[in-house]
Amino acid sequence: MSAYELFVAPFMDYGFMRRALVAALCLSLGSGPIGVFLMLRRMSLVGDAMSHAVLPGAAIGYLVAGSLSLTAMGIGGLIAGLSVALLSGLVSRSTLLQEDASFASFYLASLALGVLIVSLRGSNIDLLHVLFGTILAIDTPALYQIGTISSFSLIAVALIYRPLVAECLDPGFLRAVGGKGPLYHFFFLFLVVLNLVASFQALGTLMAVGLMMLPAAIAQLWARSLPRMMAVAAGVAVASSYVGLIASYHLELASGPTIILTAAIVYVVSIFLAPAGLVWRVLPLPHLKG
Known about the structure:
Elements: H1 3-7, H2 9-13, H3 15-40, H4 44-53, H5 55-65, H6 70-94, H7 99-121, H8 124-132, H9 140-159, H10 161-169, H11 171-176, H12 181-207, H13 210-222, H14 226-251, H15 255-273, H16 278-282
């Protein structure tokens, strides 16, 4: 098998592979930087909880539209995700519960409700599509929607970059200078939910957060400055998407899980070989030798 047949032919011969690649690249560019901010805020598991929280809204959108309509499911998922985010924040500020415990409680209830709705009114195939995604079934309207969300996310992060960094690293300072920390925090959660909705059809609710958090964790091992982390996260997500699609095509595997597993393999390798990895902690550094 030539290099062309291995790396290029699947995308030249099949339109669904091209659409899947473009969708994955858009998701990678939009989700990578968002994942870095989630990691710096120590909200990685909150992102995972919110990815499950969109399920009941997406399920209701599916019932209303009568088919796997990305627009209806996306609107429903966005409303459900933002509702869980707002309710969790309200509960954590009104009770003794911490925000992570509040998110976990709401996400478990949302996940159970969403699965129940789909299982009652749909088939097992519908449930699998909702939970695990169908990236090879991305159509042109869905591609436009994903591209729009990713573009909006990049522009929004660029516009609020400085206050977002300040609110992320030192929220006390932002409050002291009169900054609107809660407003930026809510807008950031809105961007998280928006990107999870964009990832919904491609990767499903169970793995939508994968292109956010795995590349972000890898970036932290390889880079030290925030801009480099964001660039590395986006680059790793793009590379994982391409390699995952190629591997799934030739090995006849499910595309969504293969993309996430590719990123997971890069993560495991980075744990050992990255500048902040285990190998460099075990080996003696040159400037410490006698």
